[in-house]
Every structure is written in C-alpha cells, then in structure tokens.
Amino acid sequence: MDTLLYSVDQIRAIERAATSALPPGTLMRRAGEAATTYALELLKGRPTDVVLVLAGPGNNGGDALEVAANLAALGCKVKVAWLGGDGAPSPETQAALERAHAGSACFVDDLTDGESHCLVIDGLFGIGPARPLAGRARELVEAVNRKRCPVLSLDVPSGLDADTGAVVGPHGIAVAATYTITFLGNKPGLHTGDGCDHAGRVHVDRLGVDELQVAGVDAEHARARLNLPPLFAACAAPRRRNSHKGSYGDVAVLGGAPGMAGAALLAARGALFAGAGRVFVAAVGDDGAGIALDPTQPEIMIRPAAGFAFGGRTVVAGPGMGDSAGATRMLAQVLDGSGPLLVDADALNLVAASPDLQARLARHDGPAVLTPHPLEAARLLGVTTPVVQADRLESARELAQRLNAVVVLKGAGSVIARPDGEVAVNTSGNPGLATGGSGDVLAGLGGALLAQGWPAWEAALGAVWLHGAAADRLVNCGCGPIGLTAGELPRAIRAELNALAAQSRS
Ligand SMILES: NC(=O)C1=CN([C@@H]2O[C@H](COP(=O)(O)OP(=O)(O)OC[C@H]3O[C@@H](n4cnc5c(N)ncnc54)[C@H](OP(=O)(O)O)[C@@H]3O)[C@@H](O)[C@H]2O)[C@@H](O)CC1
Ligand SMILES: [K+]
Questions:
Q1: Which residues are listed for K(+) binding in this entry (predicted)?
Q2: From CA 286, how far away is CA 301, in angstroms rounded?
Q3: Domain 4-226: which CATH class?
Q4: Ligand 1 in reach of 125 Cβ (< 6 A)
C-alpha cells in the first residue's frame, strides 16, 4: 500500500508533469489498462454477466470509457451509461468515447432497476467535482447505491472530495464503492470521514509515473500519510530484564468526579494494560467519600486530586472530570507543569471555554497530546461539528498549531496532526469503537505510552493504531463490532502492544 497521501493540487501537479513528458493520451490509456486488469482480478477472469460502466463528462469518464472498450474487446458484455457535459470532452476522453463506440459496448440511456450486473465501474467523477451531484448524475449514483453487486470506483468514488473525505455538499451524494482503484498517488479523502464508508478497499496504481521525477512533489512534500506501525514501532522496544516498575513511568488520571468514576477507571485500565509502571486516579472533588478501590483492578491507586503530587508523572486529564471550579483549578495546575500530558474529554471542554487555559496549554513545557472527538474539536475551534467534519485534516492541523500540541481528531479515519502541519490518517479500527468509554481507554493508552518515554507524536500514532487494532482483534474473535464494550479493549490492547514489541525485536 502506498502510504503517502497527496492533495488534489499535488496530484494535478504530478499529472501535469507526467502529461508533458509522455505521448498524448498515455496516462488515460494506462489508467484504463490498470483498472481493466484490476476489474478482471476482482471478477476472477472474464465474466459471463454484464459489466455496467458509468462514464462522466470529464477525464474520469474517459478512464471509464477506456475500461469499457478494453473489457468489450476482451469479449465481456458491457453496458455504458454515459453522462455528457455541457462542453466538449477533452481530446483523450473523446478518443476513449470513440473507442468504446467502435467496439461491442452497448450504450444505454437509463439504468433499469432490477437488472443484474456482476460489477459496476464508477467513472462518473474523480478529483474534479466541486459541487454536489444533482439531476441525472444523482439518479445514477442513487441507482448504483441500490445495487447489490460489487462497485469499483475509478480514482475516487464519484461525489466524494478526495482531499477531505467529505461527500461534496450541501445535500450531496457519493457512490458507495466496494473497491477503489486510485491513480498516480493515494489520497487522504479515501481514508477518513465519509471516505471510510464510500471507498471500500483502496488500491493505488501510480500509472508508471515515478514521483521522484516530478519536480516539487515528492515524499518530502506529501504532508500526509497513512498511520501504520513503521511510523512508531521503534518505540515499542522489548523490555530490559533489569528493569522495574519505576522504569515504565507513572500515569495519573485526573478525573472521576463524583458520579463519573467509570470514565477515569476505564482510562486507568487502559494505562495499566498498556504497560505503565504505576497507575493512579486523582479523583476530582473527592473528599474521600467516593470510590476507594477498583475491585476488578486493585492495582489502580485512587487518591483525592487535591494535594496529589502530579510532578514527575504523566497526567491524563479529563475522563469524567466534570466542569467544577475545582476541576478547572486542578487542570490549570497540570497545564502549568512540565510532565507529559494528555488532554481529553471534559478537560478539552474546559480549555475550549477558557482563553486562559488555552494559553496555559499552548505554553505547556512538555509533550502534550489532545484527543478531541469532532464536537470537542468544534468547541475548541469555535465552529460547528459539520465544519470540522467538512475538512478533518485541516481542522486537526489548525488545532495542533493553535494549541501547540499533537492532536488526535477521533472518528472514522482518525487524524493525527502535529503543530508543523504533518498529518497521519489512521488505518486500523472499526465501528465497534463507537461506544461509551472507548475514548477513555484511548486516553489511558496514550498516557501509558508517554509515561514509557514515547515522544508525543509517536505516542499519539501508536495509541490510535493500537486502539483500532485491538478493536479489530476483538471483532475477528466475534466480539463486535455490535456490542463491543470499552472494558474489553484493554486486554486486546495489551496483546497488540506485545505483538508489536516482539516484532520490533525480530
Ligand atoms: N488528465 C489525464 O490524462 C488523466 C486524468 N485522470 C482522471 O481524470 C480525473 C480528473 O479529470 P477531470 O479534471 O476532468 O475531473 P472529473 O472528476 O472527471 O470531473 C470533471 C467533469 O465533471 C463535471 N462536473 C463537476 N462536478 C459536477 C457535478 N456536480 N455535476 C455534473 N458535472 C460535474 C465538470 O464539468 P464543469 O464543472 O466543467 O461544468 C467536468 O466536466 C481523475 O480523477 C482521473 O480519474 C487519470 O486517469 C490520470 C490521467
Ligand atoms: K469515480
């Protein structure tokens, strides 16, 4: 899998440079050949049923017409629904249209509901659409999304924004593909937000264009990548035999206000099973009348937050912390400290509501990771959740820069961003994680990695990936995604982290 993620502007730059270096029409021909080969691979050879090809007015449509012509030439039954535009097609698309017409592909005006196809090839729109699909384009997408057969999108599922992973709106629609073959380079929008539900399995074909030949766009310039273990596995070193609990750091969860103990305990369990040497809950507003012990996890030490010695410990602030004046005071104290810090949940809401806490966080003298879900991110940025979700990468970048911290914007395809603009999009996980307490476990896990000396960036990447991988492990054992509980995650995280450490030794 190509892990670098290119923006549409970068893809256009690669396309321009390659087009000027190659004979006319080469790239579209290559895109058509790559997609034809991939389609036949998916179909396990030449099918007997009809392949339906949707071709739009632009060059994405040209790619689709190439595929239609290729499949027809190989003896497949091909139907083409072509959506012409107002203007003339590009010369390459016009040539592809003529090729498809010259062969045995059958052009149809409308899709008949109930007609069966072995595969739909979606070449309506690629990186071009700047406005929501309407009229016949929308009807075609609605018809395709009702079909039960596999759908192969060319370059990008039609109607999806390749940069952001949002369906182009307002009130837009996008093809829900089973597979996407994407050209010239991988794209962030295929891996985050709506993209996770629309792209299906993503296959990258570079069309023979070596990125290093393309001036101005190379690995150095791709500012986004997929989050995979090579980015952080070096931190998961096997343990030295001559070590003790002090070697693996203390995590203190600041939270668990009366009535909200569960969130703090889940975070503490996340930290414990991810290898922190000692784990505390510093319970906010607890005068001693609250919980004294986690009966299933007696290793967790529970203390009142007032007077707790946070110095020299990694603080996970937020799970079940509430918004009391005491919570605000304690948060200000840890933000002013210099230890590793992870800020989650209620602590993020307190920061969002207070310019003073924002300034203290930005000045925090130590590694800092923030783990907002989209609503918390929206509060921090002073916008609405749809605005955050409309561009998850930019929202995460903006927050990281403003608050001078590594930011994990949670949700499908979690986005991890650094203040310098570097971004990673997570690859692991499933909707089983959409359950109460799963974020608390993530916070504790991140705190444990920080406590074990992982730098903030690697700790955030590692925590997000391990959290998702643990959920995948549980689903593979039949524990979800429906009904997966946050309390099941810590043990699965332990298994994933140990597997990672064992691999890093070999
Ligand atoms: N150049 C090459 O050699 C290569 C190109 N490649 C391929 O080209 C794709 C990019 O092609 P592209 O730039 O033509 O954009 P594309 O996605 O086809 O859409 C543009 C068309 O859609 C129209 N349109 C837009 N929105 C609309 C709407 N809501 N409803 C209706 N119409 C709408 C828009 O019309 P307009 O806005 O001008 O009115 C225009 O006609 C790329 O994704 C890849 O597949 C690769 O194979 C590599 C080689
Ligand atoms: K498409």
A1: 60, 122, 158
A2: 14
A3: alpha beta
A4: yes
